[in-house]
Write a structure and sequence with these properties.
By secondary structure, this protein is of the alpha+beta class. It contains 5 helices and 8 strands; from the N terminus they run ββαααβββαβαββ. The protein is globular and about 40 Å long.
Amino acid sequence: MTPTLRTERLLLEPYIPEDEEGFVALFQDTRVSQWMGDGPASEASDRALFGRIFTKVYAQNLFDVWAVRRDGLLVGHAEIKRTDVVGGHEIIYALAPTAWGVGLGTELAEAIVAYGFDALGLTEVHATVAATNEASLTLLDRIGFEHVQDIKEEDGSTTRVLTRRLAATDKSPLAR
């Protein structure tokens, strides 16, 4: 069961059915969805994805996925899950543009990484990021991720694989 996590300004908790409209709005915003998965999808696809969070992910306890809230409002999405792309666990995060530029992305990514190290016992976590997503690449570099390889996609684009390894200095930003 996906646990509730808290940072200084964010609450990460399992989605509830009432989050559907906010989830769909987040994923329908092309400023966000251009960097997620295979890019923007139809509204129907995003609604189906939201439904699968309950019918598959939570029902079968497949991996952890969170609604990200600030001051009670849904402002983002986060996951940590096994992936064959990098042979380990990958973090995934997205914030609504209204939450950009004030350090929440860093706070969110650090929280997911800390959860991976602390709760899941991982010694490394990965992120796959489009080579053109400068904001995420900069954020992940700043919090200790290192570029380990590039993947050439079928459409000709490049995905960067980044890894952060557990260090003795890693301290949990959770429950501050």
